[in-house]
Amino acid sequence: MRIPAVLAVLALALSLGGCYTANQGKLGNFVTSTIAPGMSLDEALVRMRAEQFDCQSSSAGTLTACTRTQYSLTRGECLERVDLVRSPSSVRIVGGIDILAIKCSRK
Question: What is the predicted pLDDT for the residue at 92?
Answer without folding.
Answer: 92
